[in-house]
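Sanity check. The docking grid for coenzyme A depends on where the pocket ends up, so I'm generating a full predicted complex first rather than guessing from homology. Inputs follow.
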Amino acid sequence: MSDSNNSLTVRDNRTGKEYDIPINDGTIKAADLGQIRTSDDEPGLATYDPGFVNTASCKSAVTFIDGDKGILEYRGYPIEQLAEKSSFLEVAYLLVHGALPTKEQYDAWVHEITYHTFVHENVKGFMQGFRYDAHPMGMLMASVGALSTFYPESKNISDPENRHIQIVRMIAKMPTLGAWAFRHAQGKPYVYPDNELSYTENFLSMLFKMSELRFEADPRLVKALDVLFILHADHEQNCSTNAVRSVGSSQVDPYSAVAAGVGALFGPLHGGANEAVLRMLRRIGSMENIPAFIEGVKNGNERLMGFGHRVYKNFDPRATIIKKACDDVFEVTGVNPLLAIAKELEKIALEDEYFIKRKLYPNVDFYSGLIYEAFQFPPEMFTVLFAIGRTPGWLAQWLELTQDTEQKIARPKQIYTGDRTLQFVPASERWK
Ligand SMILES: CC(C)(COP(=O)(O)OP(=O)(O)OC[C@H]1O[C@@H](n2cnc3c(N)ncnc32)[C@H](O)[C@@H]1OP(=O)(O)O)[C@@H](O)C(=O)NCCC(=O)NCCS
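Predicted complex below; grid placement will be based on this.
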C-alpha cells in the first residue's frame, strides 16, 4: 500500500476493483499499471503513447526546460549566462562532468580534446569513397559509426576510463568529420586539424583554409559559431537524444549510439527546420509580399517556419540569443537581405492575434539559418553544425544512461492489430 496522499486510486470499471498506485516525481510507474487486469490470463493494463508525448523515459540531471516560462538550463546554469560568458568546450565539460571545471581540469580537457582531433588516415580514405554529391549528414553518420571499428575497446562501456577517452575522441573528431564532409562536396582537399587553434577556430580552418599557412577567422565569427554550438549542446529528451539512449541501452559502443543520434537529427522534423526558414524567406522575396504571406498562414495554407515549438509556449530563450549573434555576424559579413524580411515577419507576427492566441514565437531556427548562410554554408551543412554542437549533450546523456541502475534495454510494448491463426499454404500450392 502506498501513502494515500501521494498516490493515484484507479477503479477498473470492468471488474469494480480499485488499485492504489504510488506517485513519485509527478509520475506513476507504467509497470504498476500491469497489476490492473480482468483475469489472470489476460495481459495487464498498459499505456498507449506514440511519440512519448506524456511518458518519462529516464531520470536525468543534465538539462532542465520549462517551456511555459522559456527556461533552458544545462546542469542548473541558465543558457543565457553560458552563451554570454562561457565557451563551447567549457559547456561540453559541464554537460559531461556535471560541474564546471577548475583551471587545471579545464586546461587538461582542452588539451585532450585538441590532441584527439586527428582521425586515422583510413577514415579519410573511405570518406573520399563517397559519391561527389553525398549529403554531408550521411557522410557524418557513416563515419562516426565507423569509428567504432577503429576503437574496438569502446565496447567496454562499464569501464569509466574507457568511457572518458571515447567521449573525448568523439567531441574532438566530429568537427574533423563534418568539415571533411563539407570539403568533399566541394571537391576540395581535406584540411588536417591545426592544434594551435581553438576548437571553433580549428573547425573553421578545416572548412575554409586554402593555400594560406594558417587560416585566420574573424574573432567575431568564431564567437558567434561557438555560441551557436552552446545553444545546441543539449535539449533533454528530444528525438535524437532518445535515439542515442535507445540504441545505447543495448550496451553497444558510444560511436554506434551517436551515429543513431545523427540519423535522427537528419530528419526534417528535427534538424531541418532552419533550412525550411531560408526557403520560406527566399520565396517571400520582398517586403511587399509579407502581408499576403501572413494571410496565407492565418488561413491555414502554410506555416510560418521557425515559429512555434512543442515545448516553448512563451519564448524560446535560444532565439533571443541568436538574434543578437545575427547582428555580430552581419557586422563582419555584410547584412543578408533576407534579415529585413525575417525581422518584419517577426514584428508582424508578434502583434497579430492569430500568433498571440496560439503562443507562437520565433524558435531557435528562425535566425540560425541566416547566420549559417552568412558563413557561406550550404543548407545541407546546417544539420552537421547542429550535430557537432549536440555531441556533448548526446554523450552526457549516454554517460548518465550507462550509470543509471534503473535503466533497461529500450523495448516498448505494442498494440497488435494484425491477423492471427492463419494457416500457411506453400507457394507451390497457392500459385497453382
Ligand atoms: C514546432 C511545431 C511542430 C510544434 O507543433 P505543436 O506543438 O504540435 O503545435 P500544433 O501543430 O498543435 O499547433 C498549434 C496551433 O498553432 C498553429 N501553428 C503552430 N505552428 C505554427 C506555425 N509555425 N505557423 C502557423 N501556425 C502554426 C497550428 O496550426 C495550430 O493551430 P490550430 O489550433 O488553429 O489548429 C510547430 O509549431 C511548427 O510546425 N512550426 C514550424 C516548424 C518549425 O519551426 N520547427 C522547428 C521547431 S524547433
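Relevant for the grid: Residues 273, 297, 303-310, 358, 360, 363-365 surround coenzyme A (CB under 6 Å).
Also worth noting: The longest strand covers residues 7-12.
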